[in-house]
Amino acid sequence: MSPEKAYQALVAKGAIVEDVAQAQAAAQLDRLFSVLTERRSLRHIFQKKQSPRGIYLYGDVGRGKSMLMDLFFEQLPLRKKRRVHFHAFMQEVHERIFKWRQLEKKGAVKQGDPIPPVAKEIAAEASVLCFDEFQVKDIADASILGRLFTQFFEAGITIVVTSNRHPDDLYKGGLHRDRFLPFIALVKDSLLICELTAAKDFRLNRLSGHPVWFTPVGISSREHLDARFKDLTGGVACQPVRLSLKGRVWDIAETALGVARMRYEHLCVEHRGAGDYLALAQRFHTVIIDGIPRLTKDKRNEAVRFVTLIDALYEHKVKLLASADSEPAQIYPDGDGAFEFQRTVSRLMEMRSEAYLALAHMSDEAPSGTELTNVS
């Protein structure tokens, strides 16, 4: 099924409400899909003097950019494809450059610019790269992007990007931005720039006016979360996502369209740390937690992990839905750290408010060494 047909199928079954701007963007992605699956001429499909090497999809938050890119990615019947958050990807690029420099010092490779060999490595792994939430705030990233993307395009890689900003607004006010301008020109010359001007913030529309905290844990609360998960994802089939941090992997089984659903045990009983929770908060705009229990005095370690988890979600403006055995104030009323836990209670209450739900997801600070990619 093509991205456009997949989009129309969601509309037909009532999973999403059709939007003209979304339909137009889906049609553009469909053309690129046809190029990649039927090996048709890019020049013929897009009718441009210079054939684009992909699509740059931008627009306000909650308009469906990631949803459309995910439909494109999921339907694309290619093995060598990758969907990754842009900042996580750049962390990986810097790590590859560092390793190359280490090989240089050992004399294992010739000295020179590490960008071409790094780009060649990446090109060998994926012929299609999908970058979610493209932003540039770091001069280290800005300084290498032009050379990196030039190598990608020369290697024949197809690139799909989602961003809140038009290319002309990238790295605005950044240090030595004049050196970044050739990259902007490269993007505009190489990618089809497509603005998603959807009229509504669909993500907020699906959350606003609906409960997000269900008590107690049981059949009823599980059914409520089932319904909310289906509503938020439009019934799209779940895709597992793997978070890899400094040699460790964390597989998230139930994810779709930027929403992750997880058991409390998977989050707070297992030995997790701040880096894990930051990666989770950076990757997903909405997290659904099943089965938060009342924590007794002997569950101090779980309480600490829960506090760290909520801090990460709150600071990144992640939307939280949960089933719990009690209201937030009664989750950890006694025990070591119970007084400090009240800040978490306050945050949980704020995260249920309309004002919080209207905030944009902040995902521009990936933990160092973090890689986030779909598990194929």
Write up this protein.
The chain has 376 residues and is α/β, with parallel strands linked by helices. The protein has helices at residues 3-12, 20-38, 42-46, 65-75, 86-105, 115-125, 139-154, 181-190, 202-207, 219-233, 264-269, 274-283, 300-315, 338-350, 354-357; strands at residues 54-58, 81-85, 128-132, 158-163, 192-195, 213-214, 241-245, 248-252, 254-256, 259-263, 286-292, 319-324, 370-374. 46% of the residues lie in helices and 17% in strands. The chain has 2 domains: 3-199, 3-Layer(aba) Sandwich (Rossmann fold), CATH 3.40.50; 202-357, Rossmann fold, CATH 3.40.50. The model is unreliable at 40-50 and 364-376 (pLDDT under 50). The strands form 3 sheets. A 5-stranded parallel beta sheet has the order 2-3-4-1-5, with helices on both faces. Strands 6-12-11-10-9 form a 5-stranded mixed beta sheet. The protein has 15 helices and 13 strands.
